[in-house]
Amino acid sequence: MDAELVDWELAVTTAKKLVRPGPQRSRAEADEIVSELRRLAVIAEGHVQDYTQLVPAGPPTPIAVVDRPEWVRSNVAGLRVATTPLIEKLSDQSRGRLAAAVGRRVTGVQVGSALAYLAGKVLGQFEVFLPPEEYEAGGAASAPSLAKPGAPTPVGRLSLVAPNIAHAEETLRVVPRDFRLWVCLHEQTHRSQFTAVPWLREHLESEIAAFIGATDLDPEVLADRLRSAVTALRSAVRDHGPDTPSVVEALQTPAQRAVLDRLQALMTLLEGHADQVMDAVGPQVVPTVADIRGKFDNRRSGGSPIDRFLRRLLGLDLKMQQYRQGGAFVRAVVAEVGVEGFNHVWQSPQTLPTRPELTDPGAWMLRVLGTRPSMSA
């Protein structure tokens, strides 16, 4: 039955048509980059585990070095899994009304266009929702199925986007080997977070389900929110300030914003932790880390006016804020109680920092550790 909200095949086709080709390399050069990324990913894994004290609880998850089209395809596979609860929520009646109001093919083109933009930017990621049948890079795409009783729980895949890493190191004029290891440290930290903390993936799923549960599917309500999104779009064109709402934010209901606060707090912690690990481990194993960090931070905040506008439109500026705020939180806690003390954050969902605590690490330490920090709040 054709019940999905998005024409996923069209999304993949659209993205592959729009995505820009990566930097030109000979076959030998490309093979060398892929080989070194695989090797450095394994080296980074050891460094990350030694520093974070996070040890995977299950079998090792796959590591894949992919190109831009494969990144698009695998992310569509993951999106199909992540949106399954939303599809289940739709009744036959509302499904038809929503399809009439939005259109699967139009949505497919929109998703594909966004993925084409992102496919040229992402250096790597831990694909949390990638279904097991997609673990092999380049495998045939297939529709996700709901987990059956007794079936193994998907654990994700670490993907490194080779052409984007090669393009970034060329643009930034950094030492390739150092930059590749630096990127691997970041992505391996995310991998460790989800493989060493057994409840983390399920918690993220439950929060996404709660976000979807707060979604109002009435087409008239959606139309009102789309009008709000247009207003936000106009504001984004005129003003790139931090208080300007993204279109993503404008489409949320009040109930969704409450869930989003928790989701943003979690993602801020995860991104900040990965950033802190890069800075803690980097000086020992990446000789040119100071040069890389300075140039990469400029790259994050830079870009053309169109690039900055698209980041604002898609809500990607939130990710940059997460790096800064989350990193400051983790550094403050580690400086006060060490890595072992910080790792109490992984005990349960209740020990995760709230959004207010992310700007007040002392409050988190007092609540979770019962320790009054010596630093000023």
TrEMBL record:
Bilayer-crossing regions: none
Stored InterPro entries: CHP03883_F420-assoc, Zinicin_2, Zinicin_2_N
Protein name: Coenzyme F420 biosynthesis-associated protein
